[in-house]
From TrEMBL:
SMART domains: PAM. It comes from Venustampulla echinocandica. Residues 251-448 form the PCI domain. GO terms for molecular function: double-stranded DNA binding; RNA binding. This is PCI domain-containing protein. Belongs to the CSN12 family. PROSITE patterns: PCI. InterPro entries: Csn12-like (IPR045114), PCI_dom (IPR000717), WH-like_DNA-bd_sf (IPR036388).
Length: 469
């Protein structure tokens, strides 16, 4: 007990929110492996509140004096924390002895501590610099919720329900959904704070938003993230600029916003946010950079037709397995190889939500194949003796058909090949490779200008039909 409240007094005297948050961590520091055990054994249920009041409210050794309301708020928080530590120690002991672990009880105890902490900000006047305590509470509430849901899924007999309309899937993520509601309360506490920015809880909002994003993605409810962004946009004028927040908050926020835009197929915005996250990410954060590249590479593939290099992927073996086979096939125009690589990584692509985006890379592989046919066509003989040779611009459809049949190992009729070429031109994929953009545009304008304009339409506003004059 003395170690935790000594750190509490020191953190409060220095207005150090992060060290204060460490006193509420459910994990013992490496230097003090028995800290949680000693803290829980230092008192009991009957005297815990009295002991904590003596350490916070009536401790003359503290170099500061808290208001009675604020002191009572922290006493309630540490009493709830003491109960949660007891459940955590029981769970750890059960794990070591291979007995049944009740992570549901751990989650409920930690949730109670979180609710008391939230109440401290609304009723007890906890100061804004203590907001990192919400970070710790929200982070581990999410962790314990996931463990509790996994525990319930592995022990279905522990959640028997005799209702006729019982739906097992509805309770699959029951604890995590409840954790999302508590995180949303934290978000509202930070967002609605009306204090001046120097003393505002708004400085903790992006950390809470990032926890909400992680929770919603885990639940598969990505659409709920849009509500957070809308609420943030509504308060944009009262918020500090994102650049003023810690880099860790910025990187995580930009990453999730980029992924949300990616899933909405807004690849330009997704590329913008993911690129910013990539540049701000710490050089040694290999795992984070791998997550960013998972979505940034498909974005570049569609927006700039840029393939990842081996040098870029060399620090990330997982990404090499995912993207290098596809990249080689796209570069060579190997349609059958591209299809095989896409099927081989289908499970992982679907899991990471990038399958449909990568599937569009087949058009780029086809473009490269058709471009090779165009280059292989050679040059035409000059009509004049001293004129330079001119590249052949009229390629028989049969040559394209033969290349496609070899690349995809499927025989195609000339009509199918013509239709495929027309679609590729329509998608503006071939324009850059064949140099046809300007020619097709001029031909289109000539055709349009050659057509007579139809007479104007006069509308009968009395209810009659339209007529031409």
């Amino acid at each position: 007990m003395d170690a935790i409240f000594k750190d509490f007094g020191k953190a409060y005297a220095e207005f150090d929110g992060y060290n204060l948050a460490k006193t509420l961590a459910p994990v013992a520091p490496e230097a003090q492996p028995d800290r949680l055990y000693n803290f829980h054994r230092s008192t009991n249920f009957s005297s815990v509140q009295k002991d904590f009041k003596s350490k916070i409210l009536h401790n003359n050794a503290l170099p500061f004096k808290l208001t009675s309301e604020e002191s009572n708020g922290w006493v309630e928080v540490y009493c709830a924390y003491w109960k949660a530590v007891g459940e955590i120690l029981n769970a750890e002991a059960a794990t070591k002895t291979h007995n049944k672990v009740s992570w549901g009880k751990v989650y409920e105890a930690w949730k109670e501590m979180t609710v008391v902490l939230i109440r401290g900000y609304t009723n007890s006047g906890f100061q804004a610099w203590t907001v990192p305590c919400l970070y710790v509470a929200g982070k581990y509430m999410r962790v314990f919720a996931i463990k509790a849901d996994e525990d319930a899924a592995n022990n279905p007999s522990s959640a028997i329900n005799f209702q006729d309309d019982f739906n097992p899937e509805a309770e699959k993520n029951e604890k995590l959904e409840d954790a999302a509601r508590q995180l949303n309360r934290m978000f509202q506490i930070c967002l609605s704070d009306r204090a001046p920015l120097e003393e505002s809880r708004k400085w903790g909002i992006y950390n809470i938003i990032n926890l909400l994003f992680k929770t919603y993605f885990k639940l598969g409810s990505v659409s709920l993230s849009k509500n957070i962004l809308k609420a943030l946009q509504a308060y944009r004028g009262d918020m500090p600029p994102l650049d003023n927040f810690p880099l860790s908050h910025q990187v995580t926020f930009k990453y999730y916003v980029g992924v949300i835009c990616f899933l909405e197929e807004n690849y330009v915005e997704a590329e913008k946010h993911l690129t910013e996250a990539w540049h701000l990410c710490h050089k040694d954060a290999v795992r984070n950079k791998e997550l960013i590249l998972t979505y940034l590479i498909p974005c570049h593939l569609l927006t700039t037709h840029t393939l990842p290099t081996l040098a870029l992927l060399s620090p990330y073996p997982r990404l090499q397995d995912l993207f290098l086979p596809l990249s080689r096939c796209i570069k060579k125009g190997d349609l059958s190889g591209f299809d095989a690589a896409l099927i081989a990584g289908e499970d992982e692509f679907v899991k990471r939500r990038i399958y449909l985006t990568l599937e569009r890379g087949r058009d780029i592989a086809l473009r490269n194949l058709l471009r090779k046919v165009f280059i292989a066509g050679g040059v035409e003989e000059a009509k004049e003796p001293n004129a330079p040779p001119v590249r052949r611009t009229r390629i028989p459809v049969a040559e394209f058909g033969a290349a496609i049949s070899i690349g995809s190992k499927e025989t195609m009729d000339n009509d199918e090949v013509e239709c495929l070429l027309a679609n590729m031109i329509y998608k503006l994929v071939l324009f850059g490779a064949f140099g046809l953009r300007r020619r097709i545009y001029r031909l289109h304008m000539k055709v349009c200008l050659a057509q007579p304009y139809p007479p104007p339409i006069r509308r009968d506003f009395s209810g009659g039909t339209t007529s031409r004059t």
